[in-house]
Amino acid sequence: MPDFLIYALLGGLGVAIVAGPLGSFVVWRRMAYFGDTLAHSALLGVSIGFLLDINLNLSVIICCVGLALVLVALQRQRMVATDTLLGIMAHSALSLGLVAVALLEIRVDLMSYLFGDLLAVSPQDLFWIYGGGVAVLLLLKLLWQPLLAITINEELAHVEGVNVPLIRLILMLLIAVVIAIAMKIVGLLLITSLLIIPAAAARRLARTPEQMAIGAGVIGCLSILGGISLSWYFDTPAGPSVVVVSLALFIALYSLPTKQQT
Amino acid sequence: MNQPHRHEPLIKLDMVNLHFGQNHVLQNISTELHKGCITTIIGPNGAGKTTLVRVILGLLKPDSGNIWKESNLRIGYMPQKLQVDKTFPLTVERFLKTAQNCNQEQIQTALNDVGASLLLKQSIHHLSGGEMQRILLARALLRDPHLLVLDEPVQGVDINGQLELYNLISRIRDERGCGVLMISHDLHLVMASTDHVVCINHHVCCSGHPEHVTNDPSFTELFGIKGSEQLAVYSHHHNHRHDEHGNIIPENERTSSSSHKDCC
Q1: What is the third-level CATH fold of A3-255?
Q2: Is the ipTM of this complex over 0.90?
């Protein structure tokens, strides 16, 4: 097997495993649009990285985390509804990124940022994916109970002593980090699908949140394997192929005969 | 407070005020909650009952006034309703485990206590209103609370189920000796199973024993002669009760309000 294929598999599987549990939270807490908005800022992160001459993975993470913090702050005001705010931020961030790329005359392969370049994953990218991924999973494990508590009911969690705003903030930052490291795999326009499609598919079989989180990871991995195979044998673009396979899995799971809805 | 208290206080509110914009929702509220005592907040719609409870729970900060809480006070809170998103897979068992680190035995005991032991493996999305209330109560109990806070615990439960739930709450108080704070809309049912009533309409109109409150002129003014008469009639009319199948519950299984008359 050629090296680039091994890197692609390792990178894709690493991202899918982290995206499973976090994607479940995105589904549970209806944060799909939030994730999309963060993803749209990634290109801005790339141009900032070029401008400051720092590692691009790092600058994308910083940009996503920064936007997440701005969104948290802006959500406190009541003048503009959250979905309007997210819409403004998403497309403004993308446009700012495109304009910045043009102004700075950076030579980038725009398509690879928009739709991912799974087959161009480098060992250095793997370092970022696994470093960031392990950190995210550790934090998730540590904060699993309070995260579930605020997802079930924030007031109940507050009464029981959970620092709700802090846990909510941490969840947003974790999502920002995962989006930043996943951008390489499926590109900024498709990242949200890697978060929500496997999680939504896993919902069909899960009876507990843990089953759904792990199931989403497994379905994500299957999507990566299927997508890379598609790309390898039929020369299709890798990122979109992954999304298509996950969609197929989603449809297959929901076509199963209903035993008992859980 | 008009009467001296035998039990140690859990929470004391002193001249608590809260505004929502121009609305002076809570006006100089002072009251106390005690161990082993069931306190019920009653009042008309929009009187600030839920707001007061949210202040007591620490979900809202008052504009002025003091709230004293016993140190390390553990509160078991049963919200009015709990809407868990359909996308969130959750069984009763898993839900109860989120209360705190508790083993299978404790979970089973709590479910037995609320008469819902058969629901353990059920999905939380398929519970009826009354079943959900019992599960929420079981979860609150699992925290082994010093104070149980119940926001309209019988909402969406039929009349027999309501009586059972109130009896259950009295029994829990008897067995565990915790304090209980309830909000209630319905006047007559709650009076039989409460030790102390705080009637509010933004301010405390009157408070004390159920019998005392129902005879208070400000109470009559708030709920009308009819309401207060119904209450008076009811509180002398509970010579038997029914379980959910319509059978009369034997006297010794019930908790009568009179045995706790001197509680508060």
Answers
A1: ABC transporter involved in vitamin B12 uptake, BtuC (1.10.3470)
A2: no
